[in-house]
Each structure stands twice: as C-alpha cells, then as structure tokens.
Amino acid sequence: MWPFKSQDKPVAKRTFDAARQTRLVASWAAVTRSINTDLKDGIDAVRARARDLAQNEPMIKKYKSLVAANVIGSTGIVLQARVADGDKQDKLANNAIEAAWSDWSRVGNCEISWRMSMPDLERAIIKSVAIDGEALIYEHIGSVNDYGYALQLIDVSRLATTLNRDRITDSKGKVLNNAIYMGVEVDEYGKPLNYHIYDDAVGADLKNRTVRVYPAKNIIHLFLADSPEQVRGVSWLHAAMTRIFHLKKYQEWAIIAAGVGASKMGFFTSPEGDGSAMADDIDATTGELYQEAAGGQFGILPEGWGFESFNPDYPHAMFAEFVKAAKRDISSGLNVSYHSLANDLEGVNFSSIRSGTLEEREEWKVIQDWFIGSFMERVYRNWISNAFLNNKIVSVTGTPLPAAKLNKFMAHDFLARRWAWVDPLKDIQASIEAIDNGLSDPYQIAAQQGLDAEDVLDAIKRYQDLIAEKGIELNVYKKNPKLQDVNPINDVANT
Predict the structure, then answer these.
(1) CA distance 185 to 181
(2) Which end of the chain is more exposed for a tag (fewer CB within 10 A), N or C?
C-alpha cells in the first residue's frame, strides 16, 4: 500500500535558489528571450545613452582613451611580412611588402575621406566598437587610389535598425525572403548577406530617409558577440551605464549642495508678518526679500526682526568613500582596473598594482587578438591582392613582385602593441632564464614587447658598425662580451 495519503503535505523539491519565487525577489521580472529580440527593443536607446556619456562624462572619455591606447597604441597594429624560401626569410620580398603597406597606410591612401592614416582609422574603429558596440567599414575596391583599395568608416546609426522581417519559404522550402534583423539580412545559418543602410545619419526627417542595400562581401561588421546567433553589437558600457549616470547625478547634486553649504544663508523673521520695515531689500520684480552679506559683515536688522540660519551639512564625510566604491563597481563592469579608470593611486602598493595591471593586460590582449583576426586579417588579404593587381609591391630593383606567387607572399604576422615591464629588472632576468632553460625563444620574448627579433638584431648590428666607424668604445660591449658576437639567443633578451 502506498504509505502517503492525499492530505499529506507535499514533498519539497530541490531547485536553484536563484529560480525560487519569494517575496524578496518578487520585483525581479526576468524572461527568456533571444538576444536579437533584446537588441531590437533597446539597441538604439543604449547607443544614444552611451554616446551621451562619452561626450559629457569625464570617466567615459578616459575609458575611450584607455581602449584606444591599449588595444591599438600610438603606432597601430604593425605588419610583419614573413615570406620565406624554405627555412630562410626572403628579406627583399618582406621589405617590399612592408614598404608598400606603410605607403598605403598614409593619410590620403588607406581611408576614403583622406582624413585618417591606418593607425588613426584603427583607433576610431575600436572607439566606435567600445561606445556603440559595433563598427561598420565599407571596402572600396577599384580606382579609388593607386592600390585599388580603400576603407570607409560608416556611422552605425545609419544601419536600419527598424527594418525587421521573418524568413519566408514556399511549400517546397524554397526561400522567398531572407530574414532581416535590425537592418542585417542573413541566410538560414545567420550568415550576413546584405546590409540595409540609410543614405545619411539620423536627422530630423526620419520618414523620407532612403535605404540602400550593400552586399556583405563589401562590409566589415565588427562587434564582440556575447551570445549565440547575435546579429548586432551592444555598447561595452551597457552593464555599467545606469550606475555611471546615477553617480554623475549624485556628484552634481553634491557639488550644488557644497556650494549651498559654503554660503551663509537663512531666513528673516518679521514680528509683524510683513516686510515693510525692510522694503529697501525687497526685489521689485519677484517681491522676494533678499539681502547679500558682504565679507565678514551683515546688515543691521530692524527692531524685533530675527534671522534663522540654514546650514546644510553636506556633502558628508562618507562622500569620497561612496564615490570610490561606486567607481570600483563601474570599473568591474567595464573590465578595466579601478586605478586606471579613476586615476586614483591612493593606497596602492607595488604588489597590488602589478597584479591588477597584469590581469588587465590579459583582457587587452584578448581584444587585440579579436581585432586582428576579425579586421586586420581581412583587410590585409584584400589589400595585398589588389596591390599585386596594380603592381604596387616593388622590389629594390624596381621590379614588381610576381602576382603568380601571391600565395607565397601572403605569409605575415601582425604585432599588436605591448607594454613596458612592470618590474624591468626581474622581468628581463626571467626572460633570460626562460631562454637559457629552453622554455622560450628570442622570437617569443621580442613579440611580447611588440618587437621583431630579427629587426632587433639588425639594429644592434647597424649600431655596432656605426660606433666602430666613429672609433667609439662603449662599456656595454666590454661588460657583455656576448654582444660583441651578436649572439641571437642572448642579444634579444639582453636588449
């Protein structure tokens, strides 16, 4: 016989605490929707608010600078051609390719408006991705310059967010209309086919804007996807945006309150209930009784009149600590260290700043790898193909490199910016020991500093030849005989 009767209490079921419906979380309204539905309902509003913060909030202006400086740097992403004949580098071909890339990267070549160099364009793109959540770049191929290739950065607000439709098929499964999500037309697998873009940026006349269709093969759409099947990007500020806004208002109110508190203010009290005895101090326009105290002086009140002071005690002693705690929360939402974002080194010791800096640099490296893979690699493939077609990659002899060997000439690396050692002496010694014990090599050590090992050695040799020509002796070569022979193992590490 079943041992329990119908009136017995139900047995408690095990579940996630986060899923329980209790009075403490009754206001937590969360529903499961696709990422694209969430984006469709809020992408324009989030972007508008992010742009407002970027224009008017000092902390976000600093964040934009941090992103551009750490992901791109002052010199941009550096091309390193790696063309080789067997195990030997083809220096003539490498130099020719790098020289052509450097020439194309100048203002007036790489960017269609002739306003930006390639490093400038890279910084503008990564800033757009950070604030807007995405960037659109159109590839112009043809007679736009001598190389037959140029880039155009398009304002993402021109992407027709309100244009949406479901995928339609007939009874036999033939596609009649592809799905469109927020202006991006995709196939059944979510691969972009076309981009629906307004002719101009958002303006007053929204009804008469013309939408043009651009094939995806000419559009580079950059965004960091956080969810599967995500079609559009969202501002990197979104998780911290409301906190940034409220902190901004809090600080504004505190400044106003501090100004009020620094002023000697109060209220006049009249024994008769009117202001006739102080008629000279009544404003003729507003009818308000107003008297401004001079420095260290007060006016003499009529007999019987009183004065009640108003002394607000604000901002209070915990103001600074509250602001600091709020900025720490915001820096977590932006994936940057607090001391970098807030320019605050108070109470920071060497160990803590080293740990925080190294952790933050790993985040920047992740973004660098994504940027190189998603943008730089595609640009390089299309650039070199068109450069060869236009005979723009020329050796030192003046002869164009043969286009028939294009696949051979494709070999390359991109070197992203790297950072100075946090503790130079210890870090250099660690690199030397890693090389000596076979745990690393000079190429890896040089790459960690954003350098090419062969370029370093070539520079050492040129410098040695120069000082020998001048008849100069330097102590560094006397103290370190390894440098005299330009040993590639130790030279790079020691340099």
Answers:
(1) 6
(2) N
